[in-house]
Specification:
The structure is a single chain. It is built from 19 helices and nine strands. By secondary structure, it is an alpha/beta fold. Strands 2-1-3-7-8-9 form a six-stranded mixed β-sheet, sandwiched between helices. Strands 4-5-6 form a three-stranded antiparallel β-sheet. A hairpin with a 4-residue loop joins strand 4 and strand 5. Helix 3 runs parallel beside helix 10, helix 13 runs parallel beside helix 16 and helix 18 packs antiparallel against helix 19. The longest helix is centred in the last third of the chain and has 21 residues. It is elongated and about 70 Å long.
Length: 381
């Protein structure tokens, strides 16, 4: 998505629709905050927004590990959401304060969003503010391995078509932090964040104070990007996007990701979706591999003993076509660790016995040793 489009729309809203911002509200807007590090940004909003028009609700309960679930059960309906914390660029918002244990895993946010477990928090949102480094970084976190292209050639694509197809898969599965936030905050019209380094809390609070000196309070939470706010943070890479719209192409991928995470789906239903993926091109199976691996790790003993689970797993185990394609692809993996993990998953799927796993691992080790004995470049690795 182009970063210019939301900005231009916002500019048009200011020039052409300024009166819309001044419409009075009968109900105060609810500002939900998730503060896992500095409270500077939250307090800047609180100081400058009229108390009668905005009410603040902190969702983090100190010392309570299930604070997000607790917030969901309270059914607070949020118009705005402010998340303040260091962000590792991929997996978690966290604090640098040694006495603070609260954190916010992105995967937990995805699970809640996919399961519709917290409709009051996610659905009504008009604006989200992500105060952390790289929260909206568009660069891919992961990249397809070379074996993806090779498998496409084996599947019958020409080298040029295989490269093109690999690029399309890369765009779909690249998993940038921006893509993940857009998936989590589906249909939210305004999501602010940073494409690279974000300012520290005191600096961000200072920028916000300058913004509030010139901006009408009513524009906060009206669901339109603010050129004034973007201007105040222009030197710190602030950017704005929209949540994924149901009509756009990426919405299909979001629905598939949610198949793994939605708590409303039974383990057997998730297994049948995995079986459907295993019937696709192995290039795409490889890109879903980590999610499939993590899904199996999440199943408990009770899940695995359920008759529906046993039946769904048996359908995969008996799929000889998928088994042959999968094992052939695994044997071509560039990295020994990935190949070993793929062999382990084949055992979990019932495609290899414990003895068969040992044979495949021994074959892999033998091939690696043989390759090193004849390839001088390998000896330099």
């Amino acid at each position: 998505m182009s970063m210019k489009a939301p900005f231009l729309l916002a500019l048009c809203a200011v020039v052409c629709g300024g009166e819309a911002r001044a419409e009075p509200r009968t109900e105060p807007r609810t500002v939900c905050t998730i503060t896992v590090n500095s409270a500077d940004e939250k307090e800047a909003f609180r100081r400058h927004l009229p108390a009668g028009q905005y009410r603040f609700v902190e969702l983090v309960e100190r010392g309570r590990p299930d604070w997000l679930a607790s917030a969901c059960r309270q059914d607070v309906r949020c118009d705005l959401l402010i998340i303040s914390g260091h962000f590792d660029g991929s997996t978690v918002f966290y604090s640098d304060q040694p006495d603070v244990s609260e954190h916010l895993p992105v995967e937990e946010m995805e699970r809640v969003a996919c399961s519709d477990a917290c409709p009051g928090l996610f659905k009504p949102l008009k604006e989200v503010y992500l105060f952390g480094c790289n929260t909206l970084n568009p660069e891919a976190i992961r990249f397809p391995s070379p074996e993806v292209g090779r498998s496409l050639v084996r599947a019958g694509y020409s080298p040029a078509d295989a490269a093109r197809r690999a690029r399309l898969l890369d765009q779909r599965h690249g998993e940038s932090s921006r893509d993940r936030m857009r998936r989590i905050f589906r249909n939210v019209p305004v999501i602010y964040g940073f494409s690279s380094t974000a300012p520290l809390g005191p600096t961000a609070a200072n920028r916000l104070s300058r913004y509030f000196q010139t901006a009408p309070a009513a524009e906060v939470g009206d669901g339109r990007p603010s050129p004034r706010l973007l201007g105040q943070f222009a030197a710190e890479s602030m950017t704005v996007v929209t949540g994924i719209d149901d009509a756009e192409a990426h919405a299909v991928y979001r629905r598939e990701v949610c198949q793994f995470l939605d708590d409303r789906r039974s383990p057997a239903e998730k297994l049948r979706f995995v079986h459907e993926i295993l019937g696709r091109e192995m290039a795409e199976v490889r890109l879903y591999f980590e999610r499939i691996e993590k899904l199996f790790a999440s199943f408990g003993d009770g899940d695995r003993r359920a008759p529906e689970f046993v039946e769904a797993l048996g359908e995969i185990t008996r799929d000889d076509v998928a088994r042959e394609r999968y094992l052939r692809f695994a044997a071509d993996a560039d990295h020994a660790v990935i190949r070993a993990r793929m062999i382990g998953l084949a055992g979990t799927l019932g495609w290899l016995s414990p003895a068969g796993e040992r044979v495949e691992l021994a074959r892999m080790i033998g091939e690696r040793l043989a390759r090193k004995s004849v390839n001088a470049a390998d000896g330099e690795q």
